[in-house]
Amino acid sequence: MRILAIETSCDETAIAIADFFGGKNKPQIKVLSNMVSSQVALHAKFGGVVPNLAKREHQRNLVPLLLSAFQKAGLLNSKIKNQKSKLQSKIQNVEKILEREPELLKRFKKYVLPLSKPKIDAIAVTYGPGLAPALWVGINFVKALAHWWNVPLIPMNHMEGHLFSAFLQKEEKNSKFKILNSKFPALTLLASGGHTELILMKGCGKYKIIGETLDDAAGEAFDKAARLLGLGYPGGPAIAALAAKIQNAKFKSQNYNSKFKIRFPRPMLNSKDYNFSFSGLKTAVLYFLRDHPSIAKSKTGRAAVAKEFQDAVVEVLVAKTIRAAKACKVKTILLGGGVAANRLLREKLQDAVRENLPHVSCFMPQASLTGDNALMIALAAYVSGKKKTPTAVGAEANLRLG
Ligand code: KG4
Ligand code: ZN
User: Fold this and answer.
1) Which residues of 204-248 form beta strands (DSSP E)?
2) What CATH superfamily classification does 2-166+370-392 receive?
3) Staple partner for 381: which of 18, 21, 58, 154, CB 3.0–4.6 Å?
4) 10 lines ligand 1 (CB under 6 A)
5) pTM for the structure as a whole
C-alpha cells in the first residue's frame, strides 16, 4: 500500500510518500520521500507561531513540496494533454474545495492539474490537534487531490503520529527505515509544544490518556522560559544548548550551583496521579531572574538557570513515566513529540528504564523525526487509520486520543 501523507498542523509543511508491506501487526516500510519545509525562522521574529502566517506559508509551500516529493519518489509523471477540457466539472469541484485558499488554488491549477495520476493508494492527512487555520489548508489540499485523482483519504490524529514516530528506526547498514515491533501494553510519553500526555496503549488504536498537563505543555514551558532568558523561538533547543554550556570545563570550575544556589520546584512530582503542571516552573524562573539581577545579567548565571529549569522538567517527566509504567505493568515505553529531541530527557529516561524496569523496551524516535513530519502520519495511517469520504473530514483543533 502506497500512502501519500500531508502534515500542516503547526509551523512545518511536511509531505511523505511511503510503501508499506506485511500485515498491520508486523509492518515494513520503504520510504520514497520524506520532506519538511520549516517556517520556524519566520515565526521566530514574532517569538512564537502566528496562525495566519502559518496558513499563508502552507498555501505557498504545499504544491512545490508535493512536486519535490513526487520527483524524489520517481512519481513525477509526464503531463497529460487535453485533460482539462474533459474534466471541466471536476475542475469546478477543485475550485470549490480550495475557494478559501486562493493562492493554493492558483498553484494547484498550474502545477497539479496537468500531472497524470500518480500510483498512490491513499492520502493521509493530519486533521487535529493543531492550529485550525493551518490544519484546514492541509485538509482542503488533500480533499482537492483526493477528488482529482479519485483516491481515498485517511484522516489522522497528529499525536498518534508522534506516538508512531518512536517505531521508526534507521537500519545502521543502509540507513533505510525499519519499523520496530512493540509488545503491549505500552506507555507513551508525548511531550510537544501543545501537549504533555501519558498514554496507555493496549494495542494499536487502543489508547487511554492516563495523565496530562493541567496547564502548560512541556515544550510550551521551554518556550516561555527561553523567552524569559532572552533566547529565541523555539525555546527547547535554545535552553538545551545554553544548559549544555554548564557542562564545559570553564563553567564547571566556577562551581556554578553552589555559587548561585538555584533550585526550582519539581511540580506534581509526588502527586498520586499522572498529571503534570509546568506553568509554576516558568513563574519560578521569572521570579528568580527578577530577584537576582546580577545572575540574570551574567551568561554563566543564565546558563545555570537554563540547566536547573531543564533538570526540573526532565526529572518530573521521567519520574512520572516510570511510576505509571510500573503501575500499568507495561512491556514497552515510547517517547514522542518535539521535546523528545531533548538529549537529557532521552538519556535520563533510558537510564531510568534500564535501572527500574530492565525487561521493558524503550523506543525513541530518530532525532530527525522528533519534530513534526509526515512520515509518522503515513505510518500511523497504515497501522491504525481508517479511510473516510472527503466530505466527512474536517479540522478538529482540540482533537484528543482515545
Ligand atoms: O511536536 P512539535 O514539533 O510541535 C508540536 O506539535 O507542538 O514540538 C515543538 C516543541 C516546542 O515547544 C519546542 O521548544 C520543543 O518541542 N522542543 C524541545 C527541543 N526541541 C524542540 N524541547 C526541549 N528540548 C529540545 N531539544
Ligand atoms: Zn507535533
Assistant:
1) 206-212
2) ATPase, nucleotide binding domain (3.30.420.40)
3) 154
4) yes
5) 0.95
